[in-house]
Amino acid sequence: MAAERALRSAAPHELLDAVRRVLVDGYAAHSVELFMADYGLTVLQPVAELPHTWDSVSVYNSPAGRAFGAQEPFVETTPGARTARVHLPVSVRGDRLGVLSVTLPRESGESGESDRVAELADIAEVLGHEVIVAERDTDLYLQARRRDRLTLAAEMQWQLLPGRSCARPEYELGAQLEPAYDIFGDNFDWSATADRLLLYATNGMGEGIEAALLTNLAINALRNARRAGIPLADQAALADQALYAHYAGRCYLSVLMLDFDLSTGLVQVVDAGSPQILRLRGGTVERIGLDAQLPLGMFEETDYVTQEFAVEAGDRLVLVSDGVYAVASPGGEAYGEAALARAILSTRLLPAAEVPRAILRELADHRGGPVPDDDALVMCLDWRGR
């Protein structure tokens, strides 16, 4: 593919110029724009050399936002116009990065239009892969994601993340953190092999840079143990030792660790603190009760044990931090399990990647303001199994 060759040979900061040349030469494109989803998942930010001069577009009520939310190309046309604007999702293995918007001459037949849109969708997918690689060598695409300036703590937390969504035949997964530009200690991580999926939801104590440093140490200790092939309970024990060796119990971190067998749906769990799991099955939401163990780093040489439960095809799991279920309304009423269950039911038709953002919007309505006092983490897993 000419687009793939052009993108692979382009300098990291020139991917948009490269794809623009391909689309102008091969499709007579009038304009080509790349938009990246911002950290709060509320707007699509244009990729341009600083200082940015283009306007962002809404994720909720714009043609580009429609393509982003549905993860399907959307063709925007005006009766009698000689051009059409095609909005194409830019995603990598289920991780939603942004939208490529292309203005083209209109095709005369529906079959020709459909073939052309399919070709453009393939180009947008290749562009997404190249953006991920290019982010190792340029800040351009990371800068484009920022509607506002990130705090240093938030910068550290976002750099830890594996992505915000992913998909495989066995499952779909999405997660989001708030306040996106000022996050403290909440975080999430995941890793998959041919046979297993491991999820981690963390909630570190403290605020600002101290909370971010605590979470960075914990996440990297867990990854170090996981990559050594160590079982789940021993991962928790080793991370616990790393935190206690550094903080001597002054700071600690809650974590919920899940290890899914992709073949059977059996889940091993270590519950070390405050994050909770709720399951939607057959129209009913219930909390999965687990025996909570001590947070990581609270005491020296804590032993951890795994518990088990099973997921079935069609199950949806929602993991939340205490910054969700414990949030108080202006009148002092906690959000609680009942309200969270209603939010999960009201979002049951959305794809997993859209659910965290929707639940956090409902949480903001309960809180009575857009800016939370505490970190809020929502993860959503749709299980299909094999």
UniProtKB/TrEMBL annotation:
One of its GO terms (molecular function) is protein serine/threonine phosphatase activity. Its EC number is 3.1.3.16. Residues 170-383 form the PPM-type phosphatase domain. InterPro entries: Bact_Sigma-Reg, PPM-type-like_dom_sf, PPM-type_phosphatase-like_dom. Pfam families: SpoIIE. It is an enzyme of class 3 (hydrolase). Keywords: Hydrolase. PANTHER family: STAGE II SPORULATION PROTEIN E (PTHR43156:SF2), STAGE II SPORULATION PROTEIN E-RELATED (PTHR43156). This is PP2C family protein-serine/threonine phosphatase. It comes from Streptomyces lienomycini. The lineage of its organism: Bacteria, Bacillati, Actinomycetota, Actinomycetes, Kitasatosporales.
